[in-house]
Amino acid sequence: MSLMTVSEVAEYLNVQDIRIERLERESLLVSKDKDEAGNPLFDSDDVERYKKLAERLGGL
After folding, report:
1. Are strands 33-34 and 3-4 parallel, antiparallel or unpaired?
2. What gap in Å lies between CA 47 and CA 24, rounded to an integer?
3. CA dist list (Å): 57 to 4, 37, 39, 49, 51
4. What residues does the HTH merR-type domain cover (predicted)?
5. What is the pTM of this model?
């Protein structure tokens, strides 16, 4: 398991950081940990599964 920051996830999904923060707040993309500043960190496998699901449902 490798952890990704909000910015890394946003870049990977090609969306803005605020979108990732909203997905996390709404529990659609669940963070696995927090960094020292309290920002969420996401499991890269979870992000990949979310991307595949979103693409099947019509896009992000």
Report:
1. unpaired
2. 11
3. 23, 33, 28, 12, 10
4. 4-51
5. 0.89
Report residue 59 as tokens.
Answer: 């896009």
Q: Yes or no: say if 28 and 15 are a contact pair by the CB < 8 Å rule.
A: no
Which residue is it, tokens 């909000």? 6
Question: Counting every residue, how long is the chain?
Answer: 60
pLDDT in tens, 15-28: 999 999 999 999 99
Structural tokens at position 49? 């599964």
Regarding predicted confidence, which is higher, 42 or 59? Answer: 42
CB 50 within 8 A of CB 15: no
* Banded pLDDT at 60 (limits 50, 70, 90): confident
